[in-house]
């Protein structure tokens, strides 16, 4: 399939600058462009590439000002990144999706499947599970007893959903993610052996949530571990029992939230962040990679860094001093010498 | 099913305070209580909730002293948390467990299965595997050649056990855990390519061990990687080749132990802890989240924090100074000025 | 099977010291040796064991000088560790490998399988997948549409390879590894909901790559996430979208590389290392465990430590001062007092 700059601009509500009949048949990064490809420019860091790219069409923001001649045909749009993303959507949606029930699969007779469901081979759907419409269950997925899955949700291969967990509409669960394994709860006993605390709660995942490959969301001891609408967690992220993550909060790879912590909405967490148990984090908080949050974060919109994590400005000032600590020691040693000299001079004087 | 306070107190060996005929049919957290629910109070942090909870019965410690009127019927027991856990056990055990061999599954003719085993569909049991009594093998589990699994052990869906590994009695292996993958061992070669060192050992997991979802325990190069009786490791924990973890040691999510390290018994590790290879950690050591242990820990019962980890008191003192490093720099700068002035005064004087 | 010291020396190109007819039938660590076992000594830390080992034969480096009598027969070779590894190879290769297509498995009629392929039960090979010769696909593996896998590659149970990814020759992918899940890409929208950026690229894994259990390598947004020839990544490692890892670079367990970062060749990363997105790391860089790399590393062969990571010498100097920060504060407080006294004396004087 080929599209002209004219058609693309029409679809995106943008304007063409250059030949409206320029054609593209695929997409490419601006720095790896070639004839017939469409690229975009959003991050100013990549601006130099627009003067050298071989791509035939480039989406740019309406306020882009070329400082040199540009060979590509430009399509100006309000937000080049979003516009490009919507073209990616179109491209992605043009791929055929699997449908039907493949054999062998295991679907308990009491399970209810919505219209237009895909169930891949070797998937297992247990008693009284309820699967919504248009759900795509790839091969080798496990859906436990009484699990409920909303409409239009996709479960990639090897996803495991333990019994009684609830997943909303329009969610994406990537391969190897484990939803609803037991929380890590043990009671000390006098003989130092631990007694397992049964984990009889569940996990509730609301609509539009995306869960990365090999991530884990543990079931609550009682009640529910909850991921609110629009939450996105990356690969290897761990959400412990009884945690609640607020709407549209995103957490990058390998982060972990310990038990019973409540995280606000619209927060952003870098990779490998660790969050202590039984704390509360306000809305809109942003946290740098590898940070460790050990106590409540009460200020909405706070930006934190470090382990233990503080407000970013303070942390950065300490980080700079830390890097130069040997200099500080040298300075103090120098001061000691000077003072010793002063003392001697005073004694003599 | 409903139980009265009288019956619960009888079962737990406790005493009733209030109406012994108060009935409950389910359990709830004290802060989320409702009529007909049973709750418990153990952590003093939650004491305020006992005066407002809607739960019908609350388990409390014998030494609990109410400072305001309590609406709920109380059942006093020696250890409210443990007592509650044993009720959770009862509740959990009331759920029917799967039994029998589901089809399609793959069970090699040379494999031996104990009485009352469950093998879920799409599970694979290879040559000469030996499975004990009452073992629950959920769907999509892989049991390699010559693997031995003791009695009453549960393997949740998608668990993988490589050949020749040994798992004890009464263990719980959560979904996606990988037991016995190759240790990470390569020999440098002159041309900078690495030569794989075959990993011909195995993993031995003793009785009463629980392994979290998506955790990994690598097989030994030679000999065995060993998890002693009662060890509990959380989701995403990584145990490298030839490691030995002592009895009843617990490690929270995303921790990692590098190759050949020996960890003592009754240790506790917070989340995301990293432990260097080829070291020894004494018994009863406690380590805070995100710590990095880079050398032997010889003192039993040591409490460590930070990366690199030190004794907690010392680490906390350094952490406090670190947080205020810019103040220290300001103070030193101030001292420099003062000394300069003193020198000038002395020179003038 | 038994081998004599003579035969082993012949195979390894070494020389025998002791009885050339000494026989062994298995291998053991030098500190756990027993009659009939072969061990090796490479790490000087283990030298004391050579005087007490019960092993019948020990491989040693040609330059090994015994300082006490050694009971075992020695075989001297240029590199005892490599020589031992090649014996391990022999031992490992003596195990029979699975072959053939087990049932039930799902192989799409359009998929192409090379000669001598093993496909375990419950594995799924989708449309137009192309599998090379001698490939071992263990049970419960998922191979997506149009995936290409080279010759002699092994995929352990539960491995998932998303559509269109490419895996080279002689690779080993351990259980639970996920190749080609979506990169973590979302565009902010005005209403704070995120819009998913479709990830339409793929993953390319070149020859001789080994990928640890439960590791994840995400597909590129566009183009390819690339692991070059000879890369080794350990369990739980996360490689984000559009990352490129250079030849023969090794990364220990639980490390993570964020999106679009380019890592050089022959680098070594300790466990739990985190690497920021959109940066470049030179060739031959070595990084200590738990380090966090937040910017470009331009110096080839640099050795880095800490989070944020610096050159190791500087970092260690700061670490030492950090550990003694309370002493530094005490010293500064002492100086303040002394200066105050001097001022008073000057004022009086």
Structural class of chain A: alpha/beta
Largest interface: A-B, 61 and 66 residues
Overall mean pLDDT of chain A stands at 94
What fraction of the residues of chain A are assigned to beta strands by DSSP? 25-35%
> What fold name goes in the CATH topology slot of the domain at 3-94 in chain A?
Udp-n-acetylmuramoylalanyl-d-glutamate--2,6- Diaminopimelate Ligase, Chain: A, domain 1
CATH class value of the domain at 3-94 in chain A: Alpha Beta
CATH superfamily of the domain at 3-94 in chain A: MurE/MurF, N-terminal domain
As residue ranges, the low-confidence spans of chain A are none
- Per the principal axes of the C-alpha atoms, what is the gross shape of chain A? flat
Number of strands of chain A: 40
For this structure, the quaternary state is homotrimer
End-to-end Cα distance of chain A: 95 Å
Key structural traits:
homotrimer; alpha/beta; 10-stranded parallel β-sheet; 40 strands; flat
Description:
- 3 copies of one chain form a homotrimer.
- Chain A has 349 residues and is of the alpha/beta class.
- Chain A is 17% helix and 28% strand.
- In chain A, strand 39 and strand 40 (310-311) form a beta hairpin.
- Chain A is flat and about 100 Å long.
